[in-house]
Here is the input.
Amino acid sequence: MNVPPGYRSTVAVLAATQTLSWAILYYGFSSFVLPMREALGWGEATLMGALTLGLAVWGAATYAVGAAIDHGHGRAVMTTGSLLAAAGCLGWSQITQPWMLYAVWVALGAAMAMTLYDPAFNVLTKRYPQHYRQGITTLTLVAGFASTLSFPAVGWLISGLGWRQALMVLALVLAAVVAPLQAWALRGPALVAASTAQVPQDDSTLRQALRSRVFWLLGASFTLHSFASAAMWAHVMPIFAGKGMSAAQAPAVLVWIGPAQVLGRFVYAAGGTGLSLRHLGLLVMLGMPLAMLLLAESTQWLSLLLFAGLFGLANGLITIVRGGLVPEYFGRTHIGRISGAMSALGLLARAAAPLLTAWLLLAAPGYRQVLWVLASLGVAAVVAFALARKPG
Here is the structure.
């Protein structure tokens, strides 16, 4: 009666809860900006600052979360993170002052570190060492629909209930659906025995990883990729406005990024799993600078749709590459700490990207030149990735 769920059930539950968590915690924020601005009279800089703070806390907390998972506490981490997210959304629904919003997003940033992707990847890697790559692929394939779910669902709640009541509903979903499902799915041993072909004593410790050249090359590559992606998302509407496109026309292009992201993961799951993650990673990394150049130079619909497809493919597959390559290079024993340290770099870059790009815009003639700079960072990411070979 108390038998822990198997591999397929665990992956299915994590895929569903990741989709809900991403839809609420990450993609949901933008849907609340306009109603909050109208109700509270706060400027966009004040509102966006809360998200930036949350992303920074997410990055700062990833190492501690990874260490806890390495010690076998994955179930407690993810379940507690979902309950913390529920408390954060409930607190968010009651804010009346900017400091309250910022305090809430400190909690939500910690909750994102405890729930979104990396903890799930690390738990799957430790529990199912023979199948973690397939599990990560399935999880990201399903969760790729989070943005598709978030915008209409959250918008419907806000229009029907108001933004405060909508946040209460989202808090209820996290507390009554996501947290219990994760608590059920992650019962049982935190580590399933590996095959005899795997030698855990050969796995790298965090100290050894930090001393290796490959850690810093991979870290630099993923960080540069995250920075360019976050910068584009933060400034995408002004970029399209600079091309003479209205606020109604831009989404007609951007809406294709999500399907392209899911399509890339689906094609990989269907027939690309035999491809080396290193070779896949090189192709994915090349997609980012090409997408930035297309966005910089394009004014025609076909070219802009090609940008959306290429950007979506790159963003969709980079998650699989990072989730699978780090344990492949450094082993599973200390994957939580190593992955957490590497993820922190990318998350802090993601938090800083909107502001640093705005400063860059002050020195550049326009967004065309800014996008060329982002494309250059993408090329540097490709070079760093190509130099990062598996340790001997």
User: Anything to note?
Assistant: The radius of gyration is 20 Å. Residues 193-199 have pLDDT under 50 and may be disordered.
